Amino acid sequence: MICHILFCFFFLSFQVRNSSSVDEMNHFHRVAGGNLSIICYGLSSGTWRIFCRENCEGENVLVNTKSQKAINGRSSAEYFERAQEKSFNLSVAVSNLTQFDSGLYRCGLGDNTATFTKFKVVVAEAQLDGNSDHHFYKEPGSWLTVACSFSFSGTKKYFCRGDCGEDVLLYTDGVRAQSGRYSIGHDKSAKSNVFYVTIKNLTRSDSGQYRCLSYLNSGTISHVDFHINVSDVTSGTTYQSRLYQNNGATSGGTSVKTFPPWDLPLIVIVVALAVTVILLSAALLVSCRRRSLQGLGIADSFSDKQMESVVFEQSTSGDLIYQNIKPDSKNQK
């Protein structure tokens, strides 16, 4: 029964064959909020089950265990064997994906990362269709990945600036393509009616309209447009993409809205509190100063009265003697 479940899971999940070639490396595309489930099979035998990112060091180690199954936050790994094929396999997963989960991953057995299976994950901020206006507010130096959804799987795919009249950034009739800061692609496992486009290291000059275009040899054409606004942080306000979407929608489109973050109200509150503290401190200082001056006035008045009540005594020689009078007193006569 357990073998049967593992057998079904094996074919229902995506599978990655061990390969050290970057050109043959598998790319998996997902939308933010979704999940990733991959099976790394044909691995070298080993005691440790490891699932990691990039260089597999420090915080990049997601799961490192000798157990058959382990979960660490959003990441998990499960080991199983196929006795008939003498295959050592490791099923890995990441839930609730974010754009920052994009990158290189490794999974394997033992401690020799050179024998691990490598694959790349591309996570889009949103899935778009042609039924809505889509706007993204980005900062210089950031990147944007979106998934363009169509009603058919085109034989040719274009990524353009404007209306694809002249400024074609990328074109492919295969699985993926890359040129400089631009890339385009979809999962190799099956023909897809969704392909993903990425722009890295955005600059202010990248602001404008972009188009994903899908083309069939029969002449059928469909496109998805979106706008990017790249601007510096001004007046303490950072504009970022805040996307509210239905990740599972296959029809009716995905509504993408952008809102400025709550940074401005927070700054206002902090400034208001700081001003309040300063004003209260100033008021307290003034109050203390007044009390100090009032106390000094009373002391001076009391000293004057003492001076006025000095009693002169007649000496036997007829001279006047001053009593309790200091050199800096006001009445020295």
Note down, in words, how this protein is organized.
The model is unreliable at 1-23, 234-264 and 301-333 (pLDDT under 50). The protein has helices at residues 2-12, 263-308; strands at residues 14-17, 26-31, 36-41, 49-53, 61-65, 69-72, 75-82, 87-94, 103-109, 117-124, 126-128, 135-138, 144-149, 156-161, 168-172, 176-179, 182-185, 194-199, 208-215, 221-230, 313-314, 320-321. A hairpin with a 2-residue loop joins strand 16 and strand 17. The radius of gyration is 37 Å and the shape is flat. The chain has 2 helices and 22 strands. The protein has a 5-stranded mixed sheet, covered by helices on one side. It has a 5-stranded mixed sheet with strand order 2-10-9-4-5, with no helix packed on it. Strands 11-13-18-17-16 form a 5-stranded mixed sheet, with no helix packed on it. It is 17% helix and 36% strand. By secondary structure, the protein is an alpha+beta fold.
Helix segment tally: 2
Structural class call reads alpha+beta
Main beta-sheet annotation: 5 strands, mixed
The radius of gyration is 37 Å
Helix percent reads: 10-25%
Categorize the overall geometry: flat
Read across the widest sheet, the strand sequence of neighbours is 1-3-8-7-6
Strand content: 35-45%
Write the H/E string, N to C.
Answer: HEEEEEEEEEEEEEEEEEEEEHEE
Unreliable segments (pLDDT under 50, ≥5 consecutive)? 1-23, 234-264, 301-333
* Number of E-type strands: 22
Query: What is the average per-residue confidence, as pLDDT, rounded to a whole number?
Result: 75
- Distance N terminus to C terminus? 118 Å
